[in-house]
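Lab manual, section 2.4: Encoding a predicted structure.

Procedure: take the sequence of the chain (371 residues), apply the prediction step described in section 2.3, and record the output as structure tokens. A sample record is shown.
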Amino acid sequence: MGADRVFAYGAAAGLLGDLLLGDPRRGHPVAAFGRAAGAVERVLWRDHRGWGTLHTAVCAGGAAALGVAAARTVRTSPAASAALTGIATWSVVGGTSLAREARAIGRALESGDVEAARARLPHLCGRDPQALDADGIARAVVESVAENTSDAVVGALVWGAVAGVPGLLGFRAVNTLDAMVGHKSPRHRRYGWASARLDDVAGWPGARLTAVLATVAGGDPRGALRAWREDAGKHPSPNAGPVEASFAGALGVRLGGTLSYGGRVEHRPVLNGDGRAVQVGDIDRAVRLSRRVSWLALGVCAGARFLGGRLLTPPKNGRGLATPPDSPRPARTRRKDSRLPDVPSNGSRPAAAAPNGGRLPRTPATKGRTS
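Recorded output:
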């Protein structure tokens, strides 16, 4: 079993496990990483970008190194490698938890219990729930579903396809660090700079793939493409912009506007201004779109890994063995022609063969002569 199939089988098993089991209530690997990163922060924290960069390198690098060590341990067994990939995928994706929290808030809003919806909103995003009415909560949920589809599912699959288990763990570590220290609070404005910038870089390919798939899988491909092209660049986040704009266009709703984070009010541009205001029923539509995007992303990433493996695999010779590209070609042999004289090793031209078996002909000039 090649590395492409190991990833495909393992990632599919991990997504299926997330669908059936969701996140564990206790002992989640991401929560354990968060506790470890918090302990590192307590030791290293200084109001300085350099110390924040060291914090990012220690935590993200440690997670990726753990993935490398685990992958090397099982590299001789394709079954064990696929199982490890499945466990890693299940531990880093969060599509089911995202859907459960979003739908729980939606049910609270449908029943008119705005306070219950406000109480659950911090499980999904970092906005101030008390500053939001029912429509504002619904809009916040749809935006969070869109952004977390990229962060919690698609981005992890992309880096898993690129780098296997180390890519899965490393991406989740970077994304978690951004959530912990990457925001612009007074404590983390400088210390979290490196985590925020690294998260922008790591999330770039997954965000674009999410936007493409939302455009394809949504109900209005033209509207999604138009909103992505016209409004994504207005968003302050280089990765959330394409994702939220494409979701807004696909669902036919308006996103963005005035937000409140930690007592700080932000006035963000409106995405897909031609759409209608978000309604409670749009939460379930956004969750279903997120599901479709997640499974399509699995297919795209597995296919890209398979194609990349074929392009990078050296060609095989007739016996099924890979031929190194720099190996010399065997010298062409030429069938010896018995009619041609042998060439002496010293490179001189051969003498002409004498007739009559090598005996000189008898001519009148030589007849009767003695030596």
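Check your result against the sample. Residues 134-181 form the longest helix (48 residues).
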